[in-house]
Amino acid sequence: MPTKNNTAVDEAALANEVKELILKKYPAKEARKRAKQIIVNKVEGDQVPEIMANTRTIPGILTMRGCAYAGCKGVVLGPTRDILQITHGPIGCGFYTWGTRRNQTMPKTPESANFMTYAMSTDMQEEEIIFGGEKKLKKAIEEAIDLFHPKAISIFSTCPVGLIGDDVHAVAREMEEKYPEVNIFGFSCEGYKGVSQSAGHHIANNKLFTDVVGQSEMQKEGKYRFNILGEYNIGGDAFEIERIIDLCGMTRHSTFSGNSEYDEFASAHTVDLNVVMCHRSINYLAEMMEKKYGIPWFKISFIGAGATAKSLRKIAAYFGAPELMERVEKVIAEEIYHVEAVRQEVRARCEGKTAMLFVGGSRAHHYQELFTEIGMKTLSAGYEFAHRDDYEGRKVIPNIVVDADSRNIEELTVEADPARYRPRKTEEELAQLTKREGIGFNDYVGMMSEMKKGDLIIDDLNHHEAEVLMEKYKPDIFCAGVKEKYVIQKGGIPLKQLHSYDYSGPYAGFRGAINFYREIDRMVNSNVFRFIKAPWQKNPELTGSYACNR
Amino acid sequence: MLLRHTPETLADRSALTVNPAKTCQPVGAMYAALGIHNCLPHSHGAQGCCAYHRSALTRHYKDPIMATTSSFTEGASVFGGQANLLEAINNIFTIYGPDIVAVHTTCLSEVIGDDLGQIINKALADGKIPKGKRVIHTNTPSFKGSHVTGFANMTQSMVHYLAENTGKGTGQINIIPGFVEPSDMAEIKRISSLMGVKSILFPDTSEVVNGPLDGRFHMYPKGGATVDQIRSAGDSAFTVSLGSNASLPAAKLLDTKCGIRFKDMELPIGISATDAFVDALRKAAGVSVPDSIMVERGQVVDVLTDNHQYFYGKKVALVGDPDQLVSLTQFLTDMDMKILYVVTGTPAGAKFEESIRGFTGPDTIIKHGLGADLFYFHQLVKNNRPDLIFGNTYAKYIARDEDIPLIRIGFPIYDRVGHQYFPVVGYRGAMRMMEKILNALLDRQDRDAPEQNFELIM
């Protein structure tokens, strides 16, 4: 048996071999670039290797990535049920974001506004490309207001809008003057901005911050009020998180943006804490809200039973009330009791099996914890569009160079609000919470420091690389998205979609952990892949009969 | 209610499209390109389009959909995408080794005005296209037409780049099957081969997007029309073009370029349209219709006669793509059903309306192009309730809210399986459609019947 150290050496050797195999196929220029995005992990204290991320996609490489419009409209704003969302562009962009991300939502009453089952678009035609689309956009806004009477309208720019020079912001201002009761705002999230969905997150954060947050002073009743940032209620994740928070007697003021409403966003600055789930998509808003309003933020994760318990304890410790901490412990104990029974049962069947995760900008990290809980090992992981801080931790932010492709994504200058800035804790209290409770304010350690030495970290994984990984590592399960699912499964390896959850869920929180354990158990221990070879392929010897007997 | 904001009262809309009954061109072009053997579709634009189109087709087929993209950045969007496409072509051939790359465009590269023909020539001159390999292109601006237009454009480009008249007549018949499922393409081939007709079909996605699971991923599956087959289309005796919106441009160009006469026909959905297709093949190839096909036809007529009481007078509403709608309308009126509404987001032209009107008479509301969306369709449904809705998966919201059974047909179908494997064209397809319709109607009768009227035998 190799010792623990030897295993790490072996894994690193395999990882290096795989990396070389991958690069061998590329033209020289592309090989040089990819070499910096494929890293054999090496953790020493809090030091991890440097990875290149958030750089342009190599044309023709068969990437998994999408665009800035997807990041802005599809991801950040999409889940909000009562902001009426109009895509300004030809029909495709609006069509493809219509119900395809599983952001569930639960209107408070049967009469409440819910526009999420609607896809609205200006359906630009050649005429608008030639003469400009502002007139049609204005008319579309009028028609939308007449038909739907929304509180707020958001306009999303697609590729041609920027090129033909339509000014969606001017249109928004003009229409807001005409309809002062409706908050109308536009996003310059043209698909070519930045290098991935990530640019769209940033653009969405900026506008939510300047045009929505702080518009209302409504305060929800209840103690221990906080916002959850970067949780999109895929498959009901936010519902489960809300259930747990209610049990603990805390108050979730708003979620950006799973199961959310406009009014919750507008008054989000009234809380005492922001907790961040998906660091990549929403860290901008967390940072800006702290600067402007004095609301501290820290990273949490509700993916995994252990992570959920840890996050609840962190939030309770922040508020510091003994009765809250007691209640949280009680909730954790009760919930974990149910989780444990399933976990032990599933672990017995999954222990030692291996997984790979290549998902957007946060799940590739979060879900490793769930696999660990059932005894499974992560061999390789990566993001489509995360930045170096998501890989290496926020401490590298000062060293990140914004390259030419992302330079045009606006970076807002934020100052403390003269009237509304209110530090929720003193510097001393924050320092104490860090020291005593290990709460890392404004911090995120990143994925790499929590992965093993020798694990292969790959940014912007493409098809060729996925094929090499499958062949060399033969993992028991591969986690990615719908475009990869059937590619991997044709090869006889189950693929768990960690964007759509394969239409199940929730996977967050305690009940989510149970769902996930059972789902992975089903996938890695199922009968289905036994049928790949027909019986006659397993027993290839020829059979026949004498012609005279026929 | 999932669509609680949709009012019954119709109001004019000229600018806002709500719940479109179409999507944009490139996804149709990508689908068509997958119907060429050993072909990698390429999307010349920002990478979001390619990701969306691959995802849409993947969800529809539950099968791998491979395509590359030029991955435009802001710089390329301002200065042109030539460098991106040249780099992409080099990478694609080096890493993924297709025989042919079929490029389509997006609204981005169309607005910029990238000259793809010139870029491909430069790639050729620079030696970026290996010997014996091909790069073809089509222009698919998303701000014109719909996904059906994109399919038509890519199919036409196959003719433009590949078809050749060498003067050696092959006697074969070209069949351009239109924007239909791989199962339909396979069925069309089966019919043609049962009749002993020597034919080639392009594009042909059967066994590409509905392939088997055999333990190995095949980047280029077994199916697809080969480049040689498409080239030889220029030497064929005749072209049968199915579905004028999807197939006619290619058939016309084949006539202009190679002098191949063609017959523009409806998709062979239903008895009459299949009769016409079989008859056209028979005449074009000079063969007689075999007994096996007569048996299939007779079985369909038998089922129709046996169950006519359930079909007769039933009110139906249809939303989808134009070529399917024309044939479906004829099929359903053949069954004595009553067509209330026919809606497609694709601007389908006067001929579309005329054809439908010819089958339905004056009362049917027909709308296509701008303003013809699922929101409008839903309003119509609220105003006069049909017994059945035909549409893609997005119509399920209407079906649920209004409690009307939905027959899934068209693109996309994200929530059921079967369309990849079982045809709706031909007599066999007509049989399947009838079974689906009957099941929906009889399930509903079983569900709604008072206990004393609950029937064992139906």
Secondary structure topology:
The complex is a heterodimer of chains A (550) and B (458).
Chain A lengths: L3 H21 L3 H10 E3 L27 H10 L5 E6 L2 H6 L23 E2 L4 H6 L2 H15 L3 E6 L1 H6 L3 H11 L4 E5 L9 H15 L13 E7 L5 H12 L2 E7 L4 H5 L6 E4 L2 H15 L3 E3 L5 H15 L2 H29 L3 E5 L4 H11 L3 E6 L5 H5 L34 H11 L18 E3 L4 H11 L3 E4 L1 H9 L4 E3 L11 H16 L10 H4 L12
Parallel strand pairs in A: 2-3, 2-4, 4-5, 6-7, 6-8, 8-9, 10-11, 10-13, 11-12, 13-14
Antiparallel strand pairs in A: 1-12
Helix pairs in contact in A: 1-18, 3-9, 6-8, 9-12, 10-20, 13-14, 14-20
Chain B lengths: L16 E2 L6 H9 L5 E6 L2 H15 L6 E2 L4 H6 L2 H15 L3 E6 L1 H6 L3 H10 L8 E4 L9 H16 L10 E4 L5 H13 L4 E3 L25 H6 L5 E5 L1 H15 L3 E4 L5 H15 L5 H16 L1 H4 L3 E5 L2 H13 L3 E7 L4 H12 L4 E4 L5 H10 L4 E4 L4 H7 L3 E3 L17 H23 L10
Parallel strand pairs in B: 2-3, 2-4, 4-5, 6-7, 6-8, 8-9, 10-11, 10-13, 11-12, 13-14
Helix pairs in contact in B: 1-2, 1-7, 4-6, 7-10, 12-18, 14-15
Computed CA radius of gyration of chain A, to the nearest angstrom:
25 Å
Strand order of the largest sheet of chain B: 12-11-10-13-14
Mass-distribution shape of chain B: globular
Please indicate the percent range of residues of chain B in DSSP E strands (runs of 2 or more).
5-15%
Largest interface: A-B, 91 and 83 residues
Helix content of chain A: 40-55%
Total E-strand runs of chain B:
14
Major beta sheet summary of chain A: 6 strands, mixed
Side by side, the strands of the main sheet of chain A go 1-12-11-10-13-14
Distance between the termini of chain B: 33 Å
Number of helices of chain A: 21
Report the radius of gyration of chain B as a whole number of Å. 23 Å
- Ranges of chain B where pLDDT stays below 50 over 5 or more residues in a row are none
Characterize the overall form of chain A: globular
